Amino acid sequence: xxxxxxxxxxxxxxxxxxxxxxxxxxxxxxxxxxxxxxxxxxxxxxxxxxxxxxxxxxxxxxxxxxxxxxxxxxxxxxxxxxxxxxxxxxxxxxxxxxxxxxxxxxxxxxxxxxxxxxxxxxxxxxxxxxxxxxxxxxxxxxxxxxxxxxxxxxxxxxxxxxxxxxxxxxxxxxxxxxxxxxxxxxxxxxxxxxxxxxxxxxxxxxxxxxxxxxxxxxxxxxxxxxxxxxxxxxxxxxxxxxxxxxxxxxxxxxxxxxxxxxxxxxxxxxxxxxxxxxxxxxxxxxxxxxxxxxxxxxxxxxxxxxxxxxxxxxxxxxxxxxxxxxxxxxx
Length: 331
What we know:
The structure is a single chain. By secondary structure, the chain is mainly alpha-helical. It has helices spanning 19-32, 44-47, 54-70, 88-97, 102-106, 109-117, 124-138, 152-169, 214-222, 239-252, 256-259, 268-294, 297-326, and strands at residues 6-11, 37-42, 79-82, 144-146, 177-179. Helix 10 (239-252) crosses helix 12 (268-294). The longest helix is centred in the C-terminal third of the chain and has 30 residues, at 297-326.
């Protein structure tokens, strides 16, 4: 285990876990846990940059953890925990805040996007969110971070902070690299295929929830936006068809360019039917496992408690090293 490279990743417990989260993150997390030492977190601290209903947030945290496991993440292979249960995340974040420049944070596109959406709550946490993300990663001496293309900017900041800190204080942090899966890394909205499928999309027809019933999944895919030329091809300008081919390819294990060959001479109706069938079949065992896990709250409690203890043991080593480097008194 100690000879394996370290991977850290997390998902905010906001909205719901979508097919995009599954294809772009969870499906790959399952594969990675065999080859790497993996730490996967429900990053609940990040979620409160936007106002949350406390009861709903707690329920979503449990739901996300259950779905992690239902998707195939094995608590015996990987460390699973709630971010807020390991205080080192917040402690390191403060130290790294003091080593991050205002100009760097001002350039973060997600801050600009979220500020525009939540003009009544542009808080300091929203601004320094990328530093907490850097802390999440650097605490575990992470080698690889599975990221979507929209998170590359945050990873670059984490790398810059690590390099800066190492330059000032000597070798302290592993400088992480990004891992972007070659297939299905970015699933787009079914209703606006120029935008990423989002769990916070106000239009439920734009995304597929992992717990959607088969008939709901089929209906959403049948309603997916395509185009008017009727040709099933994977190329620029065919955003809706490209998205459906990407989803299908990611599930059956083919590149979109390969998947398109299965539909030569077929119409959009056939494509949508085949995509819907593939998605429903992929999610069926996940939904069954989720129901089983959710029926045993004590199981989830034990997983999160054990995971937090294991994560804290690793995180504390890094935190104590950092505290010593910056001159804090030993405890």
